[in-house]
Amino acid sequence: MNVWGKLKNFWIQTKRVLRVTKKPDKQEFLTIVKVSGLGILVIGLIGFILSFINQIILG
């Protein structure tokens, strides 16, 4: 497939994706923010606990 064919295929797929997607409403956005924030806190807490245990073990 030549470069123009690849670009045309990419453009067609891009238009299809943009047609299907939608802007989240306020409730959906707040849910995404809460879940993302909770995930960040959990990962940070796990890192803190592992670092704390490492400090205790290695002194």
Largest sheet: none
Distance between the termini: 61 Å
**Strand-residue fraction?**
under 5%
Category from helices, strands and their pairing: mainly alpha
For the residues shown, what is the average pLDDT? 95
Backbone shape: elongated
Count of individual beta strands:
0
Q: How large is the radius of gyration?
A: 22 Å
Q: Please provide the ordered H/E string of secondary-structure elements.
A: HH
| Count of helical regions | 2
List low-confidence stretches. Answer: none
Helix content: over 70%
How would you characterize the overall build of this protein?
The protein is mainly α and 59 residues long. The chain has a domain of 36 residues. 86% of the residues lie in helices and 0% in strands. The chain is built from two helices and no strands. The longest helix has 33 residues. The mean pLDDT is 95.
List the main descriptive attributes of the protein structure presented here:
mainly alpha, 59 residues, 2 helices, elongated
SSE layout and pairing:
Elements: H1 3-20, H2 26-58
Care to give the gist of this entry?
Helices cover 86% and strands 0% of the residues. With 59 residues, the protein is mainly alpha-helical. The chain has a domain at 24-59.
